[in-house]
Amino acid sequence: MEELKMLMADLKEDELLQKIKELLEAGEDPQAIFDACQEGMSVVGSRFESGEYFLSDLIMSGEVFRQVSEVITPYFAEGEETKSKGKVVIGTIIGDIHDIGKDIVVTMLRSANYEVIDLGVDVPVENFVNAVKETGASVVGISGLLTVAFPPMKECVEALKAAGLDVKVMIGGAPVTEDVCKYVGADAFGTAHDAVEFCNNWLG
Ligand code: B12
To answer: What topology does CATH give the domain 2-77?
Structure first.
């Protein structure tokens, strides 16, 4: 797993994907493989912040991770029940285009048999409200990695309430803390793994 983490961190796309396929075919736990690649992404973030990696490397990391998710996801679903456990509307809030973390949340939720309506990035508040109205989703997930994303996240929670929609709201993104969660008025915040736990608690 350490080797996988470093292949991800070093952006060695071909070697990484080959290694993952071999491990999956050999029956290795897909969750352990996923976790190792996520740790590799943290190393990518640290290298960017220290100036070792550039924006182009970050973009590349996103593309590599997307392929990793595509390869692993079918193995998550294998042998498990396929009935939907509930609907979740998710998106990255307006003004913010970071979607690597949000996409991980989407993958994890879909693997856990939730039906996810992914609104994409830079999503206006009213689109969240309309999507809940149209789909009858019970949970809304809002992702935001920029500090300027916090006020629109708060507006989104207020708009959902003002529309009389009975939904639970979870938020996430690297800079989201308990204080941010309180400010935004969300029900919970956390990681992609937490997102599944929250939905299991709320909808289970
Ligand atoms: C990769 C990256 C980019 C990529 C994004 C590619 C993509 N497709 O997403 C690119 C190069 C495009 C980019 C652009 C910019 N970025 Co940027 N970026 C990052 C970086 C290095 C990593 C983010 C990442 O993907 N991490 C890995 C994922 C897996 O982690 P994550 O997103 O936190 O997600 C996890 C959890 O938080 C959670 N989660 C995420 N969403 C949700 C949602 C819910 C509901 C739940 C429950 C959980 C959850 O689940 C995930 C797994 O557990 C961060 C640094 C950092 N420390 O985060 C900066 C960072 C976020 N970026 C930053 C900046 C400034 C920018 C730019 C403004 C740069 C510029 N000069 O143009 C632009 C912004 C453009 C815009 N309008 O959005 C700053 C933000 C600073 C701030 N205080 O606002 C950061 C913190 C870097 C820094 N230290 O300066 N960026």
So the answer is: 1.10.1240
Residue 80 confidence class, pLDDT cut points 50, 70, 90: low
Place of tokens 């996430």: 172
Out of 8-17, 19-28, 97-106, 151-160, which region has the weakest mean confidence (pLDDT)?
A: 97-106
Domain 87-203 sits in CATH at 3.40.50.280
What spacing in Å lies between the alpha carbon of 176 and ligand 1's midpoint? Answer: 11
Domain boundaries, the chain: 2-77, 87-203
Report how far residue 37's alpha carbon sits from residue 135's, in angstroms, rounded to the nearest whole number. Answer: 33
Residue 55 is predicted with a pLDDT of 87
Q: Where are the beta strands (DSSP E) in the chain?
A: 87-92, 115-118, 139-143, 168-172, 188-189
With the most atoms of ligand 1 within 8 angstroms of its CB, the residue from 98, 178, 193 to mutate is 98
Residues lining ligand 1, judged by CB closer than 6 Å?
41, 45, 48-49, 55, 58-59, 62, 95-102, 104-105, 141-143, 145-147, 170-175, 190-192, 194-195
